[in-house]
Amino acid sequence: QVQVVESGGGSVQAGGSLRLSCAASGRIFRLYSMGWYRQTPGKQRELVATRLHNNDTNYSDSVKGRFTISKDATKSTVYLQMNDLKPDDTAVYSCRVVNNYSSYWGRGTQVTVSS
Fold it and tell me: Could you report the per-residue pLDDT of 14-25, keeping only the tens digit for each?
Protein backbone atom coordinates (compact mmCIF):
# COMPACT_ATOMS: atom_id res chain seq x y z
CA GLN A 1 0.00 0.00 0.00
CA VAL A 2 1.11 3.56 -0.71
CA GLN A 3 0.43 6.47 1.61
CA VAL A 4 0.05 9.95 0.16
CA VAL A 5 0.18 13.03 2.37
CA GLU A 6 -0.27 16.61 1.20
CA SER A 7 0.66 19.78 3.04
CA GLY A 8 1.07 23.48 2.45
CA GLY A 9 -2.45 24.68 1.76
CA GLY A 10 -3.87 27.82 3.28
CA SER A 11 -5.39 31.20 2.62
CA VAL A 12 -3.74 33.94 0.61
CA GLN A 13 -4.73 37.13 -1.16
CA ALA A 14 -4.85 37.34 -4.93
CA GLY A 15 -1.38 37.72 -6.37
CA GLY A 16 0.19 35.79 -3.54
CA SER A 17 2.05 32.47 -3.54
CA LEU A 18 1.80 29.09 -1.86
CA ARG A 19 3.82 25.90 -2.12
CA LEU A 20 2.16 22.52 -1.74
CA SER A 21 4.03 19.34 -0.89
CA CYS A 22 3.05 15.74 -1.56
CA ALA A 23 4.97 12.91 0.05
CA ALA A 24 4.55 9.28 -0.99
CA SER A 25 5.63 6.43 1.27
CA GLY A 26 5.13 2.72 1.70
CA ARG A 27 5.31 0.08 -1.01
CA ILE A 28 5.96 2.52 -3.84
CA PHE A 29 7.82 0.09 -6.13
CA ARG A 30 8.09 1.61 -9.61
CA LEU A 31 6.78 5.17 -9.57
CA TYR A 32 5.20 6.29 -12.84
CA SER A 33 3.87 9.74 -12.05
CA MET A 34 2.95 12.14 -9.31
CA GLY A 35 0.57 15.00 -9.84
CA TRP A 36 -1.86 17.54 -8.50
CA TYR A 37 -5.58 17.83 -9.13
CA ARG A 38 -8.13 20.25 -7.73
CA GLN A 39 -11.85 20.28 -7.12
CA THR A 40 -14.44 22.84 -6.10
CA PRO A 41 -17.98 22.04 -4.91
CA GLY A 42 -20.28 21.03 -7.74
CA LYS A 43 -17.46 20.64 -10.25
CA GLN A 44 -15.46 17.68 -11.48
CA ARG A 45 -11.92 17.23 -10.31
CA GLU A 46 -9.48 18.68 -12.81
CA LEU A 47 -5.81 18.13 -13.51
CA VAL A 48 -3.49 20.92 -12.41
CA ALA A 49 -0.02 19.53 -13.07
CA THR A 50 1.71 16.19 -13.33
CA ARG A 51 5.29 15.01 -13.47
CA LEU A 52 6.22 11.68 -15.01
CA HIS A 53 9.08 9.38 -14.03
CA ASN A 54 11.04 10.69 -17.03
CA ASN A 55 10.56 14.25 -15.73
CA ASP A 56 8.09 15.24 -18.42
CA THR A 57 5.53 17.68 -17.06
CA ASN A 58 1.98 18.58 -18.01
CA TYR A 59 0.01 21.62 -16.91
CA SER A 60 -3.55 22.76 -17.35
CA ASP A 61 -3.85 25.85 -19.50
CA SER A 62 -5.27 27.82 -16.58
CA VAL A 63 -2.07 27.50 -14.52
CA LYS A 64 0.67 27.53 -17.17
CA GLY A 65 3.25 30.18 -16.42
CA ARG A 66 2.07 30.54 -12.82
CA PHE A 67 2.45 27.06 -11.29
CA THR A 68 5.52 24.83 -11.31
CA ILE A 69 5.68 21.17 -10.34
CA SER A 70 9.00 19.84 -9.16
CA LYS A 71 10.20 16.62 -7.60
CA ASP A 72 12.64 15.49 -4.97
CA ALA A 73 13.36 11.97 -6.18
CA THR A 74 15.26 11.02 -3.08
CA LYS A 75 12.19 11.64 -0.95
CA SER A 76 9.42 10.57 -3.39
CA THR A 77 8.01 14.03 -2.93
CA VAL A 78 6.56 16.52 -5.39
CA TYR A 79 6.01 20.19 -4.87
CA LEU A 80 3.62 22.59 -6.50
CA GLN A 81 4.83 26.16 -6.44
CA MET A 82 1.84 28.40 -7.07
CA ASN A 83 2.50 32.04 -7.93
CA ASP A 84 0.18 34.90 -8.88
CA LEU A 85 -2.74 33.09 -7.34
CA LYS A 86 -6.24 34.06 -8.41
CA PRO A 87 -9.63 33.60 -6.69
CA ASP A 88 -10.46 30.97 -9.35
CA ASP A 89 -7.60 28.86 -7.96
CA THR A 90 -9.58 28.32 -4.77
CA ALA A 91 -10.14 24.58 -4.42
CA VAL A 92 -9.18 21.43 -2.59
CA TYR A 93 -5.89 20.28 -4.07
CA SER A 94 -5.21 16.56 -4.04
CA CYS A 95 -2.11 14.61 -4.93
CA ARG A 96 -2.23 11.48 -7.05
CA VAL A 97 0.56 8.92 -7.13
CA VAL A 98 0.67 6.29 -9.85
CA ASN A 99 2.95 3.27 -9.75
CA ASN A 100 3.10 0.08 -11.74
CA TYR A 101 0.21 -1.40 -9.74
CA SER A 102 -2.35 1.29 -9.09
CA SER A 103 -3.01 4.94 -8.32
CA TYR A 104 -3.31 6.45 -4.86
CA TRP A 105 -4.82 9.69 -3.63
CA GLY A 106 -4.14 11.89 -0.67
CA ARG A 107 -6.89 13.49 1.39
CA GLY A 108 -6.34 16.91 -0.10
CA THR A 109 -5.45 20.33 1.18
CA GLN A 110 -7.56 23.48 0.95
CA VAL A 111 -6.30 26.50 -0.95
CA THR A 112 -8.33 29.69 -0.60
CA VAL A 113 -7.52 32.83 -2.57
CA SER A 114 -9.34 36.02 -1.68
CA SER A 115 -9.72 39.02 -3.94
Answer: 999 999 999 999
